[in-house]
Amino acid sequence: xxxxxxxxxxVAQGLIWGLMAIGVYISFKVLDIADLTVDGSICTGACVxxxxxxxxxxxxxxxxxxxxxxxxxxxxxxxxxTLFRIPSILAGILSQLILFSVNLKILGGKxxxxxxxxxxxxxxNQLNNPMAILMATGIIVAxxxxxxxxxxxxxxxxxxxxxxxxxxxxxxGINVERNKVIGxxxxxxxxxxxxxxxxxxxxxxxVNMGRGAxxxxxxxxxxxxxxxxxxxPNFVVSLIGVVGGGILYYLVYxxxxxxxxxxxLLKMLSAVIVALFLAIPPLKEHYSALxxxxxxxxxxxxxxxxxxA
Length: 309
Fold this sequence. Notes:
This protein is mostly helical. The chain has helices at 2-30, 38-54, 59-82, 88-106, 129-150, 156-164, 166-171, 176-202, 213-228, 235-258, 266-308; strands at 112-114, 204-206. The chain has a domain at 2-212. It is 76% helix and 2% strand.
């Protein structure tokens, strides 16, 4: 029963981090860029949202501004990568370092800024998990529908093409560099939006809250895709699977905490989960190859027996 009581909170957090994983999915799967800006931009969204709410702005306005702040952070990474020819991983690391200082300045030099749910009207908070789940689900559904529509427009289709085959895209006259900047801006905007929701849910913004976020995002992606690929794969199904991966990740996370695992090992657990789901596709391929080889040998032995007879 004690563990069952933690499930609503784990689902609510899983939905918020699932939204963050959608942002990671756009950079990692659609653009084929390993973007490490995420650890900074999720914190930027949380800090911007917390400061605006505590200064009297409505929560909805605050998360929209947080989204725009995340887009600026993503565009910065994109420009470092495309304009200055800095490798994408290094560009993400540089942006992440810049954002740490920016986030400190946003919080006024403090490392933590509390948000009182009793004196501020929030979109969601951990004092009411059923409502938090409902609101997070509504935001995610709206985001998936918007992305689905966007990626089948004249802007979105070339953006997908950029990630699939940049050389062919250039040959077709597509501005690959511009699309990378746009894609990274959208990706980090969604990540920052989830950061704003997370700050409201947990009741504070912390300058270190984004540490290891990319690992959680990747875990959600690989867990979700390993499940959703059993269904006919498409863009919407993949995004739903990513959100489901976030929920499943946090359910496992909560169960491990319930079992009494040392909290110092939780980051290692996240890395192990990602490693396991990364290993599943090649292991399945190796297993399938062994089965095919075994079937071929059996067929060859049966043919030899027939010829001998």
